[in-house]
Amino acid sequence: MEKFELDILGCGSATPTTLHNPSSQVLNVRDKLFMIDCGESTQLQLRRSRLRFGRLNRIFISHLHGDHCFGLIGLISTLGLLGRTGDLYIHSVAGLEEILRPEINFFCKDSPFQVKIEIFDPKKSEIIYDDRSVTVKTIPLFHRVPCAGFLFTEKQKEAHLIPDMIKFYNIPVKELVKIKQGADFVTEDGKVIPHSLLTKPAEPARSYAYCSDTAYSEKVVPIIEGVDLLYHEATFADEDAARAASTGHSTARQAAQVALQANVKKLMLGHFSARYTDNRILLNEAKEVFSNTMLANEGLREKL
Fold it and tell me: Which residues bind Zn(2+) 1 (predicted)?
């Protein structure tokens, strides 16, 4: 099965700690790397992960709080030092161009590649990227500033040919692509060999949803319904629910409630407040609602 796996580079919140780095992660889809947020120290964590800088495809920035974008200029500079020549696309809410472009012009004026910033509307759920492997759709979130999450949906692969059946019916090579795409095969004497007899179904398409930062909201549920993995911020424990509400964040229990309502397969908690030295308090509170819950952690690689 081709790769569809998540690497956690940082899962802390705004205040740096020795336990966690600021938000960043990479989704590897068939060896194309999609970065989601780029907090401070992201490039160092990317190096530690042993992911290849050259395979970095696109960057998605959820919102313009520093713990989600302070790492951009350092990463861009390093990509230039490593000889990148292909354009780098960054998808973001409005405002990043005004912030990042002066830094690029000052620190990276001789860069061998162009940085192109594509703006999306965080109030809409819409497709902002699409290729042969994956579709990326925005998830409107509810934070103190314009903010959106991202839904990555793998493209369904073609059916697998059954070699013995292909050989038995002596099917020409030129017909194989059409059969994989769903066509039946008609023999020279007019007999129809159904597609279902010649192929077996491909593995189900996989999906991943990223929701950070956001206050609790059931409006995200229809968008992320049934995803294989949901990463949802869990900045606070129950005892700090009032703080969560006032700052536009969620508790671990609220993240679990979203996962339960959306019928997701697995929940990963992240964006932990620096006030907790042991995140198991968050895990335990979430598991009371949604048992298939795990904690994010730097260096974690989750295969979907």
Answer: 63, 65, 143, 213
Question: Which residues, including other chains, have CB under 8 Å from residue 175's CB and lie 6 or more apart?
Answer: 183, 185
In the chain, where does the domain assigned CATH 3.60.15.10 lie?
Answer: 4-157+203-303
Q: Which of 37, 67, 184, 240 is catalytic?
A: 67
pLDDT at 282: 98
pLDDT at 46: 96
Catalytic-residue membership of 7: no
| 65 annotated as belonging to a binding site for a ligand | yes
Residue with the bigger pLDDT between 188 and 265: it is: 265
91 in a known ligand binding site: no
Summarize pLDDT for 180-201 with one digit per residue, the tens: 889 998 888 888 888 889 889 8
pLDDT digits (tens, 9 = 90+) for 44-61: 999 999 999 999 999 999
Burial of 95 (0-12, 13-18, 19+ CB in 10 A): middle
CATH topology of domain 4-157+203-303: Metallo-beta-lactamase; Chain A (3.60.15)
Calculate mean pLDDT across residues 86-94: 98
20 is in an annotated binding site: no
Q: Which of 112, 115, 118 is nearest to 101 (CA)?
A: 115
pLDDT band at 211 (very low <50, low <70, confident <90, very high): very high
- Specify whether the CB–CB gap between 5 and 28 falls below 8 A: yes
The answer to whether the annotation marks 63 as part of a ligand binding site is: yes
CA distance 223 to 262: 8
Q: State how far the Cα of 8 lies from the Cα of 36, in Å rounded to an integer.
A: 10
pTM higher than 0.70: yes
